[in-house]
Amino acid sequence: MPHFVAKADWSDEAMLAAVRAWIIDDTGLPKKGIHSVGVARQYCGQLGKQDKCQVAVTLSVANDHASLPIAYRLYLPEDWASDPARRKKAGVPDDSRFRTKPQIALEQVWAALAEGVAPGVVLADAGYDVNTAFRTGLSQLGLAYVVGIQSTAREPA
């Protein structure tokens, strides 16, 4: 592989012109209090550790020139979603229900396809690898994907 990347006779420009990507990622917003919608102790990329934050799932389209976010949805942790009093106090709509981050991401992908966004290779980090339904959903939509693998992943027997 290193030989292919370093010595192969290919054009970076031609390859990048052909490659289009859909990037799925989490965006963490550190918070100190507990009253902002969705605040929970969870992994926050800005801090590089678990702490109180809000997390949003984003879908961006990218090519060699730019990256543009096209979908952004706040992740509502299960303890928030299942607490009617807390939801009411914070103004969370009644029809909002708990969705995992991979479920949110897959809904964003479906919506982008329905809106006619030109598909690309879907890229996601290892947080999305733990969800087989996410990868299966992408495959059923006919989308190629590259998803990080967690170090604890084991090959099926």
Summarize the SSE layout with pairings.
Layout: H1 2-7, H2 12-18, E1 21-30, E2 40-44, E3 49-62, E4 67-74, H3 78-81, H4 84-90, H5 101-114, E5 121-124, H6 132-140, E6 145-147
Parallel strand pairs: 1-5, 5-6
Antiparallel strand pairs: 1-3, 2-3, 3-4
Helix pairs in contact: 5-6
Low-confidence stretches: none
Structural class by sheet pairing and helices:
alpha/beta
Number of domains: 1
- The CATH top-level class label: Alpha Beta
How much of the sequence lies in strands comes to: 25-35%
Helical coverage, percent range: 25-40%
CATH architecture classification name? 2-Layer Sandwich
Helix/strand order: HHEEEEHHHEHE
* CATH fold-level label: Nucleotidyltransferase, domain 5
Oligomer: single chain
Give the N-to-C terminal Cα separation: 27 Å
Gross morphology:
globular
User: On the 0-100 scale, what is the average pLDDT?
Assistant: 85
Largest sheet: 6 strands, mixed
Number of helices in the DSSP assignment: 6
Could you please describe the fold and organization of this structure?
With 157 residues, the protein is of the alpha/beta class. The protein has one domain (17-147): 2-Layer Sandwich (Nucleotidyltransferase, domain 5), CATH 3.30.420. Helices cover 30% and strands 28% of the residues. Helix 6 links the parallel strand 5 (121-124) and strand 6. Helix 5 runs parallel beside helix 6 (132-140). The mean pLDDT is 85.
